[in-house]
Amino acid sequence: APVTDAIVDIYEESTSRKPILYLLTAGSDPSFSIDELAKKRKKFPTDKVSMGEGQEKVAREKNNAAFLTGGWVILQNSHLGIGYMNELEDVILKTSEIDEAFRLWITCEITQRFPIGLLQICIKVTLEPPAGLKAG
Predict the structure, then answer these.
(1) pLDDT tens digit string along 60-101?
(2) pLDDT of residue 131
(3) Each residue of 3-33: pLDDT tens digit?
(4) 3-state SS assignment for residue 30
(5) HSE-CB for 49 with a 13 A CA cutoff
(6) pTM of the entire structure?
(7) How far apart are CA 78 and CA 81, in angstroms?
(8) Distance between CA atoms of 35 and 87, rounded to whole angstroms?
(9) Strands of the 72-76 sheet, one edge to the other
(10) CB of 14 within 8 A of CB of 20?
(11) CA 60 centroid distance within chain
């Protein structure tokens, strides 16, 4: 599958301290597109963490490792890990050494609880659901 132009543009705009936040609609999941781009950028495999109970520690470890290696981390369903989202802004802004190649991709259903500070430093992307899927 070709990498959509949009994701390349989004990537170009991102930095190691400017994460990409995908606001999910029903049935949309950017992980495949991110992985396709990661292959082209020699960043595959990406580190994926599906947020939810007990996953904040895993997310923290993956991010801390990728800060050093310049890896890519995808935090999926981050509306289920708002506690970690709350600390992430500080981590991204205050960690002194983050490899320039590091990228953080966050997927999240739209929620009022998403921390505004993190929202402000992210590139925000909305995904349309795949054709043929109607919200029910």
Answers:
(1) 999 999 999 999 999 999 999 999 999 999 999 999 999 999
(2) 60
(3) 566 899 999 999 999 999 999 887 788 999 9
(4) coil
(5) 26
(6) 0.89
(7) 5
(8) 26
(9) 47-50, 72-76, 103-109, 20-24, 123-126
(10) yes
(11) 13
The C-alpha atoms of residue 116 and residue 110 are separated, in whole angstroms, by 12
- Contact in structure between 70 and 40 (CB atoms under 8 Å): no
Q: Smallest Cα–Cα separation from 10: which of 124, 118, 128?
A: 124
Chain center to CA of 43 = 14
Q: Residue ranges of the alpha helices (H) in 1-136?
A: 5-13, 31-40, 56-69, 82-94, 116-121
How far apart, in whole angstroms, are the C-alpha atoms of residue 47 and residue 18? 17
Tokens of 27: 């049935």
What pLDDT score does 2 carry?
56
Token duo for residue 3: 């990498």
Chain centre to alpha carbon of residue 106: 2
What is the chain's length? 136
Band (136; pLDDT cuts 50, 70, 90): very low
